[in-house]
Inverse folding.
C-alpha cells in the first residue's frame, strides 16, 4: 500500500473519531465522513466497513456522554462533551477493531493479493561456511579419481590417471542458498518447488565455493513435486521430492532429494504413537538404447511418544538397486558395454576396469547393491530440550566377493558389506531462537560396498565409503532464526592404502 493510502486510512480513523465525539448531530459533510468516502472510492475498504467504523465511533461516544450526564445533578443542563482521555480510548478501540478486522478478513486492500497468492508459502535458508581440510602426513598420494576418469569417457593409461587430493591441506569458503515455494492447490493437493545453489551436477551437494573471480553461480531445481493426500494420513508423491525415508546420513546424505514416485502413509494408534510405511520407484540412470537403472525402495516403522517426555522411533528399510553393476567388455577390446558405466562416482566402492584393450581405463561398479537397514532413535525431553541416541545399521545382501575378484582380474581392496553409525545428542532439536543450543558426538564405520558411495554423507571424509571415524558438533542460536554451527570430522580408511583426513566446518545459518 502506498504512503498516500496509509495516510488516508489514518486520517479517516482520526477524523471519524473527532467528528463523532465533539458533536453528536454533525452533518454528513463532516471531514471524517468525507475521508471515509474517499477510502471507499479508492477501493481501500468496502462501503459497509466504512459505515460500521462511523456508526461504532458515534455509538461509543454517545454511550460515554450518557454515562457522564447520568453522573451529574438532575437539575444541571449538560452539554454533550467527551473528555480527552475518553476520546483517546475510543480512538484506540476503533483502531484495534479495524486492524483486527483487516487482518482476519483482508478487506483493507482487497485487490492487493489475489486468492491464489494466499495459498503459496515462501521460505528459504542461507548458509555461509568456512571449511578447513587437513590430510595426514602418511597418506598414500596416488588415489585415482574414478569420477573424473568416467566424466572424460575413459582415459588413456599412458597419459596417466587424474588423481584425488590426499596430501595437500585446503581451506575454502562456501555458501548454500535455497528458496522454497509450496502451494496448496486444494485441501488435498500440494505442490513444492525449491531452487538451490551448487557448483556441479550431482545429488549430494548444494555448496558453491568462493574464489572464481566473482563469476556468477548456477541455480538448480532441488525440489519439484506434487503431493496428493487422497485420504487422511496417506500421500502419493511424484517428482523430485524431499527424502521420504527415515534414516541417518549413513545411507542418505542430507541433500539427497530422490526423483520418482512413492506412496507413504501413517496410522496413529491409541494416542501413544504411529505406524508408518512407504514404498516407491526411483529412476537412477535413463539410457536411450539399453536398460535403465532403478531404485526400488520400501520402509516400515513405528514411533512412540509417552507422556510428552519419553519418545522412541524404529524403522526397517529395503533398497534394491537394479542394473547399477557395470558389465565388462568382451576380451577382444571392444567397447560395447561402455553404456553400463556409472554416470557418477565418489570414492570407496569396489571398482574394475571395464575396458579390455590394455590401453585405456573406464571405471565400473563391481558390486551389486541390495541393502537392508535398521534405524532407531531413543530420547527423553525436558521442556524444549531433549536428549537422544540415534543409530543405524546397513548391510549389502548382494555383495559377492568372488564375482568382484573375477571382474577385477587381479587383487584389489578387500570388499566389505557392513556399515553402522551412532550419535548422541543433547539440546534443542531445531534451533530457531537466540540462546538455544545443541551438542552431539558420533562414530561411524562404512565398509567399501555397504552403501553406494555417491549417496552417503558428503561431509564425513569428504564423501565416500571405506572410512571410519569420529564427529563432534555444537550449535548455538545468536539471534532468532540465525545460528552458528561448528563441526569436526576425523576419518581414516579401513581397507585401502592409508588416508587420514580431519575436516573442520564453521557455519553461519540463516532461515527465513
Amino acid at each position: 500500500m502506498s504512503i498516500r493510502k496509509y495516510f488516508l486510512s489514518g486520517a479517516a480513523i482520526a477524523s471519524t473519531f473527532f467528528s463523532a465525539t465533539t458533536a453528536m448531530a454533525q452533518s454528513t459533510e463532516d471531514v471524517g465522513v468525507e475521508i471515509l468516502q474517499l477510502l471507499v472510492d479508492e477501493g481501500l475498504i468496502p462501503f459497509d466497513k466504512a459505515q460500521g467504523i462511523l456508526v461504532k465511533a458515534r455509538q461509543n461516544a454517545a454511550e460515554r456522554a450518557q454515562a457522564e450526564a447520568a453522573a451529574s445533578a438532575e437539575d444541571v443542563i449538560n452539554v454533550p462533551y467527551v473528555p480527552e482521555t475518553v476520546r483517546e480510548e475510543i480512538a484506540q478501540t476503533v483502531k484495534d477493531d479495524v486492524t483486527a478486522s483487516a487482518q482476519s478478513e483482508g478487506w483493507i486492500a482487497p485487490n492487493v493479493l489475489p486468492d491464489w497468492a494466499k495459498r503459496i508459502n515462501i521460505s528459504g535458508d542461507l548458509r555461509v561456511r568456512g571449511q578447513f581440510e587437513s590430510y595426514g602426513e602418511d597418506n598414500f598420494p596416488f588415489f585415482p579419481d574414478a569420477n573424473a576418469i568416467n566424466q572424460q569417457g575413459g582415459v588413456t593409461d599412458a597419459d596417466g590417471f587424474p588423481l584425488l587430493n590426499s596430501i595437500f591441506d585446503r581451506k575454502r569458503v562456501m555458501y548454500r542458498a535455497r528458496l522454497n515455494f509450496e502451494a496448496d492447490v486444494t485441501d488435498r493437493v500440494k505442490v513444492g518447488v525449491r531452487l538451490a545453489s551448487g557448483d556441479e551436477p550431482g545429488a549430494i551437494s548444494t555448496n558453491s565455493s568462493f574464489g572464481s573471480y566473482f563469476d556468477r553461480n548456477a541455480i538448480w531445481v532441488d525440489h519439484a513435486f506434487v503431493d496428493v493426500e487422497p485420504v487422511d494420513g496417506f500421500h502419493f508423491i511424484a517428482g523430485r521430492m524431499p527424502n521420504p525415508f527415515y534414516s541417518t546420513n549413513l545411507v542418505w546424505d542430507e541433500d539427497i532429494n530422490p526423483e520418482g514416485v512413492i506412496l507413504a502413509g501413517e496410522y496413529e494408534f491409541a494416542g501413544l504413537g504411529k505406524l508408518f510405511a512407504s514404498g516407491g520407484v526411483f529412476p537412477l540412470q535413463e539410457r536411450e538404447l539399453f536398460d535403465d537403472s532403478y531404485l526400488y525402495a520400501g520402509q516400515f516403522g513405528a514411533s512412540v511418544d509417552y507422556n510428552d517426555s519419553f519418545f522412541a522411533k524404529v524403522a526397517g528399510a529395503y533398497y534394491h538397486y537394479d542394473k547399477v553393476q557395470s558389465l565388462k567388455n568382451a576380451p577382444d577390446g571392444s567397447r560395447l558395454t561402455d553404456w553400463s558405466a556409472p554416470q557418477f562416482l565418489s570414492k570407496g566402492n569396489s571398482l574394475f576396469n571395464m575396458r579390455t584393450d590394455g590401453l585405456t581405463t573406464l571405471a565400473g561398479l563391481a558390486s551389486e547393491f541390495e541393502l537392508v537397514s535398521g534405524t532407531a532413535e531413543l530420547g527423553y525431553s525436558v521442556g524444549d530440550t531433549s536428549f537422544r541416541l540415534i543409530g543405524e545399521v546397513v548391510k549389502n545382501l548382494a555383495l559377492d566377493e568372488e564375482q568382484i575378484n573375477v571382474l577385477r582380474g587381479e587383487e584389489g581392496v578387500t570388499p566389505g558389506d557392513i556399515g553402522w553409525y551412532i550419535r548422541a545428542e543433547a539440546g534443542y532439536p531445531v534451533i530457531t531462537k537466540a540462546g538455544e543450543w545443541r551438542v552431539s558426538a558420533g562414530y561411524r564405520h562404512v565398509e567399501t560396498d555397504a552403501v553406494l558411495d555417491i549417496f552417503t554423507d558428503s561431509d564425513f571424509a569428504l564423501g565416500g565409503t571405506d572410512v571410519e571415524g569420529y564427529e563432534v558438533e555444537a550449535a548455538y542460536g545468536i539471534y532468532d532464526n540465525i545460528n552458528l554451527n561448528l563441526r569436526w570430522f576425523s576419518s581414516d580408511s579401513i581397507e585401502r592404502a592409508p588416508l587420514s583426513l580431519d575436516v573442520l566446518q564453521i557455519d553461519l545459518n540463516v532461515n527465513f
Q: What stands out?
A: Confidence is low (pLDDT under 50) at residues 1-8, 16-29. Residues 146 and 363 are 6 Å apart (CA to CA). The radius of gyration is 33 Å.
